[in-house]
């Protein structure tokens, strides 16, 4: 029921939605999150972003996060696609889809998946600025807080 | 021979100056904390490992200072993750 992919190629949201729901009549809702590349960081113009990852551990970490979501909510399907390599502003970086019979589980699981992914999956972003300089993105305390908030959240009711 | 495969990612890879290396596991090194100290003592290139934010994974699972390290393990050092 889960599709996890780490790829350089773009993802197509309509294709992924169809893969999750076509031919099924038990799905009542699909939550989605699409992360995209912003063109500024800290007030500076960004021309591109490079994403590095830890092959092997990345796929394992994503599978673990998806499995945890499946323990917390009654999910009928999950898709997590994360891109790596060089991306330019406007491009999609990450796609999270969570299907369930009801919206509460679908939406909550989607939020959980992206929050945990941001703090547990081994990806690192490097920003490229207009003047040719680059900088590794620093982890944000807000992301840790968002991920931690789920640790104490009780299991959602179906 | 008791060897470890050590990987470095992101700015740690740049500061250490390599993406990976093989290390003969020194006698007495049995934990992540001890391995980290051992590497830092090897020279200035490894100073980045002393940064408090550095994370460690053993065999592709997150590890803490007390996590056991043994022959054949894959040990990775990296900064806090920033995907998503």
Give a quick summary of the entry.
The complex is a heterodimer of chains A (158) and B (84). Helices cover 34% and strands 36% of the residues of chain A.
Shape of chain A: globular
How confident overall, as mean pLDDT of chain A?
94
What is the helix fraction of residues of chain A, given as a range?
Answer: 25-40%
CATH superfamily grouping of chain A: Molybdopterin biosynthesis MoaE subunit
Say what oligomer this is: heterodimer
- How far is the N terminus from the C terminus of chain A? 18 Å
Low-pLDDT ranges of chain B: none
By CATH, the topology of chain B is Ubiquitin-like (UB roll)
Under the CATH scheme, which class of chain B?
Alpha Beta
Indicate the CATH class of chain A: Alpha Beta
| Low-confidence blocks of residues of chain A | none
Q: What is the straight-line distance between the termini of chain B? A: 40 Å
Mean pLDDT of chain B: 95
Q: Main beta sheet of chain A, described?
A: 5 strands, antiparallel
- Biggest interface, which chains? A-B, 28 and 17 residues
CATH architecture of chain B: Roll
Layout of strands and helices, then pairs:
The complex is a heterodimer of chains A (158) and B (84).
Chain A: E1 2-7, H1 13-21, E2 29-36, E3 40-41, E4 44-53, H2 57-72, E5 75-83, E6 85-87, E7 92-100, H3 103-120, E8 123-129, E9 134-136, H4 141-151
Helix pairs in contact in A: 2-3, 3-4
Chain B: E1 3-8, H1 10-16, E2 20-24, H2 32-40, E3 55-58, E4 61-63, E5 74-78
């Amino acid at each position: 029921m889960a599709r996890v992919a780490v790829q350089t190629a773009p993802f197509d949201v309509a294709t992924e939605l169809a893969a999750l729901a076509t031919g099924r009549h038990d799905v009542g809702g699909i939550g989605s999150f699409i992360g995209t590349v912003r063109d500024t960081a800290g007030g500076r113009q960004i021309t591109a972003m490079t994403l590095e990852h830890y092959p092997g551990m990345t796929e394992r970490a994503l599978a673990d996060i998806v499995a945890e979501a499946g323990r917390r909510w009654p999910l009928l399907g999950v898709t997590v696609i994360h891109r790596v390599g060089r991306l330019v502003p406007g491009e999609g970086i990450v796609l999270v889809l969570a299907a369930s019979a009801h919206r509460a589980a679908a939406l909550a699981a989607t939020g959980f998946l992206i929050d945990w992914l941001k703090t547990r999956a081994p990806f690192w972003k490097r920003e490229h600025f207009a003047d040719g300089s680059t900088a590794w993105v620093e982890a944000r305390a807000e992301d840790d807080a968002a991920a931690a908030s789920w640790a104490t959240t009780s299991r959602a009711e179906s | 021979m008791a060897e470890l495969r050590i990987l470095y990612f992101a700015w740690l890879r740049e500061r250490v100056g390599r993406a990976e290396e093989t290390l003969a596991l020194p006698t007495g090194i049995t934990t992540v904390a001890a391995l980290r100290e051992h590497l830092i003592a090897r020279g200035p290139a490894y100073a980045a490992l002393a940064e408090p934010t550095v994370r460690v994974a053993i065999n592709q699972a997150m590890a803490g200072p007390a996590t056991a390290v043994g022959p054949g393990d894959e040990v990775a050092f990296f900064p806090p993750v920033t995907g998503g």
